[in-house]
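Hi L.,

You mentioned the student needs an example of a multi-chain input paired with its predicted structure. This one should do, with 229 residues in total across all chains.
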Amino acid sequence: MTSIGAAPAIGDLVPDFTLPSLDGVNVNLSDYRGKRLAVFMWASW
Amino acid sequence: MPVWQQMYSDITTSGSDILSIAVDLQGPDLPRPFHEKADAEFTTVVDAGTVVTRTFGVRAVPNGALIDENGILRYAQYGGFDIRKPATKRLVTNFLVNGQVNLTDDTPVKGAVDVASLDHFERGLALFGSGDLEGAAAIWREGMKVEPDHWNMRKQLWAIEHPDRFYNGDVDYDWQKVQVEEGR
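Structure written out for the whole complex:
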């Protein structure tokens, strides 16, 4: 059984994560620290 | 994607950016054409696992999140996030330009506080794990009232109530589609 952690609420720090870009380069959320960031999550299916 | 690229070229500065996360279990090949067709200059990353689910506590897309300079979540919409909607576009633009989050009556905030349904989902999972299927189903039914778009919970509930649609060979996706269309 996988437990899903509580989602960050408004005002919480978003936990850092690392995901590969389309070119295979690892990108960290923390790479954007110091900038205002709009994140959108989507799927092609 | 084209709307995001327009926004990127029009309003992002050295102080703001856009990150696209494609959720695709099969990797980068399916999302890549969407990125390329839009001539997107921002970064698209690919989540072929559960990073989005674990980080944001969501189980469906499309979602949007606004994160400030310090990594703090300032706004989130989980499910139905669409930058083509005027209220959404206005909100994101304001945030990227001046850091303000101005919620108005027509700002979608669905799913911004998802704690209640997470609670239902996890309590149901605990009962399910201990073999109390009826107890799990009762809690998940309550949870569906809080968060109708919680697809993992809905499917777990269906699987208890209609095991023949899930465990007799293939999963019956046509049946699921009918359930959705009929609002069950």
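You could point out the following to them. The beta strands of chain A are 18-20, 26-28, 36-42. The mean pLDDT of chain A is 86.

Best wishes,
N.
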